[in-house]
Structures are given as C-alpha cells and as structure tokens.
Write a structure and sequence with these properties.
It is an enzyme of class 5 (isomerase). This is chorismate mutase. With 103 residues, the chain is an all-alpha fold. 78% of the residues lie in helices and 0% in strands. The longest helix has 37 residues.
Length: 103
C-alpha cells in the first residue's frame, strides 16, 4: 500500500522538498547556460567559425570529469551529461549559422 503525503516520514518530505528545489535550480542554470551558448553561436556564425570546437569540447570533458570525481559523482555520468548538452548546443549553433546565412 502506498503512503500518502500525511503519513510520510518528515525526513522524506524534507529530502523531497530539497530535491524539488535542486531540480528548479538545475533548470534555471541550464536556461542561463543555453542563453550564453546561444550568444556564442551568434558570434561563431558572424565570424564564420565552426559550430563545434573539438579541442574545447575535449578540454571541457576532462575538466568536468575532474570536477565530478572531486564531488564524488561518477565521472562517466558527468561526461554523458556534458555530451548530451554539447550535442544540443552544436545543434543550436548549426541552426543559428543557417539562419544568419540565409539558410
């Protein structure tokens, strides 16, 4: 039988509230990150730069893996998360370049 909210241990309710706050913060941080990467995409398109930067991406993966390890987070998970974000950023940059170049 499932517990209703009134019968949940207070500690569980508190942890869930913290998780909800963290999720909200993550969404806002991702939105800010994409706001910045959108501006990067515009600058790259205006200056004829490629949407992807494999050298920077490699350095970012290495940096993020170190940060994850220091934070006791699985570095493989952190790398997968970054790769997912970078793939979306590159897609945005490609779209921006196409729009600015009349395509």
């Amino acid at each position: 039988m499932a517990m209703n909210d009134k019968s949940l241990p207070p500690e569980l309710a508190s942890l869930r509230a913290s998780i909800d706050n963290i999720d909200a913060a993550l969404i806002h941080m991702l939105a800010e990150r994409f706001r910045c990467t959108k501006a990067v995409g515009v600058l790259k398109a205006e200056h004829g730069l490629a949407p992807a930067d494999p050298v920077r991406e490699k350095a970012q993966v290495e940096r993020l893996r170190r940060l994850a390890q220091d934070a006791s987070l699985d570095p493989d998970f952190a790398e997968k998360f970054l790769n997912f974000i970078v793939k979306e950023v590159i897609r945005h940059h490609e779209n921006t370049a196409a729009e600015l170049n009349g395509g």
